[in-house]
Amino acid sequence: MDFSKYSTRSEFAEQINAAYSARLHGTRLSNNPHLVWHDQPGPGPVKQVGHMDSKAMAWQHGWRLADKDQKRTAR
Question: What digits encode the pLDDT tens for the residues 23-70?
């Protein structure tokens, strides 16, 4: 997905903005509500992320934007 395009950012603004706010409030990237986790066989509870849909990628993009902005302003 190309988040440099206005149409893409516009389509997924809800997820991007939600993730941006979540990051600023200390939410971890792995708490993306659009991720699908799969149990993996083996000892102990092992989970792996499944295929990321468009909403999950948009949420991740918003989270990373906030992370980058916060690190830039902390200097």
Answer: 999 999 989 999 887 777 777 766 777 778 999 999 999 999 999 999
Domain, as residue range, for 59: 6-73
- Is there a domain that residue 40 lies in? yes
pTM > 0.85? no
Residue 1 falls inside a structural domain: no
Q: For the residues of 17-72, what is the DSSP string, one character each?
A: HHHHHHHHTT--GGG-TT--EEEESSSS-EEEE----HHHHHHHHHHHHHHHHHHH
- The count of domains in the chain is 1
